[in-house]
Amino acid sequence: MTESNLVNTCSTIIKSWRWPWVIFTLLVFVALIKLGLWQSSRAEQKQQRLTHIEALLSSEAINLNKLMTMGKQINDLPVQMQGEFNNQQKFLLDNQTNQGQLGYRVLQVFNDTRSKQAVLVNLGWLQGSINRNELPDLKDFPGQVTVKGNVRIIERGIVLSEQTLTDEHWPLRIQQIEIEKISQVINKQLLPFVVFLDKKESLGYKKNWQPVVMSPEKHQGYAVQWFSLAIAWLSLMVWAGYKSRITES
After folding, report:
1. d(CA 222, CA 37)
2. Domain locations in the chain?
3. Residues 81, 118: contact at Cβ < 8 Å?
4. pLDDT of 7
């Protein structure tokens, strides 16, 4: 085949392409690849966090004063506080399950004596009632107490509707933890994180939390699925395009 015939053949093939089809195929392919890369990135982040948490197990708990001088890298750090719980204003984080049972996570404000700061503390899980109008009986934790826990930076989840908080009824049921809104309700500025009580603490309720809900292995599995879908999609569209050209010829 001469150079001129080769050019003409390539030009004919390119002209025969259905560009909307090609562009749509590539857009979907790129989107699937990006989803796979995102899951791979999440797997790496989760693994790094688990490694970090493992390294912190032997670390000594620090007080809030020292914590507030450490900048932004405070997630998962062990902390020890001494002070009093606010037993008048309690919060119930809704739709929290434990072994198939529906319930709440109980949160209370802790006033730290040394730092003079207020922080929201996750006291654990408590089973709820099938009747949505019935709220569980909550304990009071009076007097000066010393508690240990871990700092958790709360990520904002998917919001189906804007949450409006009022102080008309206590305990107050909430759909997600929003520090600024809770601060407005109690008329006191809270620190921008939540302290999850150490599982060894006798104070509180059932402490069944895991710092990482979805394991790195699951993220990797999802990444493989997205990459496989991308390859399958591209193969299918190439085959469909080839069959279409054969039929037309």
Report:
1. 10
2. 3-49+216-248, 77-197
3. no
4. 42
